[in-house]
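Handout, section B. The chain below has 283 residues.
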Amino acid sequence: MSDYLETLDIDQVLPATLELATNVLLAIAILLLGYWIAGRVGRLITRAGDRYEQLDSTLFTFLGSIARYVVLAFTFIAVLNRFGVETTSIVALLGAAGLAIGLALQGAMSNLAAGVMLMVFRPYRVGDFAEVAGIFGLVDGIDLFTTNLKTFDNQHVIVPNGSIWGEKIVNHSHHPIRGVDMHFGISYDSDIDLARSTISGVLSSHPHVLNDPAPFVEVETLNDSSVDFLVRPFCDGAHYFDLLYSLPERVKKALDGAGIEIPFPHRKVIVFNGENPGESVGG
C-alpha cells in the first residue's frame, strides 16, 4: 500500500515540478530576451539622432528610453502570463494608472508635448539668439520640458515649453545676414538729398555694414513736423547689435556736422483774450 502511495505521489509531483521548472526556465529566457531587445531597441532609437545632425539627440534619447520601458513592460506581462497570472486586469490597471497620472500632470504633459514639437521642427537651437514667450536672449539649453535663456543682463531664465509652442517665435540667428531697421527724421527745411548722402556716408564708413546687399536709405514718411528716413543697413548676424547701438550716434553727429536739423515736435498754441482775440503763441 505504501509503495502505491509513493508511486502515486511521484506521478503527481513530478509533472507539476517539471511544469514549474519549465515555466521558470522560460520566464528567465523571456526576461533575458526582453532585456536584450529593450536595450537594443533603445540604443537603435538613440543612435538615430546621432546619424542626422538636423535632428535633436535629446528627443531620440527620450524616445529610446520610452521604447525600452515599453518593451520591458510587455516582457514582465509575458513572464506573469507563463505562471498563469491573468494579465488582462494588469493591463487595464496600468491603463487606468496612466490616465490618472496624465490628468494629474496635465501641465507637465503639455510642456512635454511642446518640447517634442520644438525638437522635431527645430525653430531654434542652442546658441541662437531668439525671442520666445516675450523673452529675448541666448538659447542656453533645450530639454523636453523647458528652454533655458541667458539674457543680456546675464540672467538665467527658464521658460516652460508649453508657453513657447503656439506663440510667436523669433529666431534672430536663423539667417546669417541681418538687416537693421532704423528711422531718422529731418526738418522740412533741410535738403533731403544732402541728408541721404550724409547718412549713406556714415553707413559706408562703418566696418560692419555690408556692401551686398546694399544699404537702403529712402524717405518713408512725411510726418507732422519731420521728414522720416527708413535706413536699413545689412550686416553679419553677429554684428547686429553693434550696428543697432552705434549707428544712431554716428548719424546724429554727421547730420549736425552737415547742418541738417533733426526736429522735435512743434505745437502751435492760440490764446484768446479780450483785447487781442487773434493773438497766437508758438511753441
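Note. The first helix runs from residue 2 to 51. Compare this with the example in section A.
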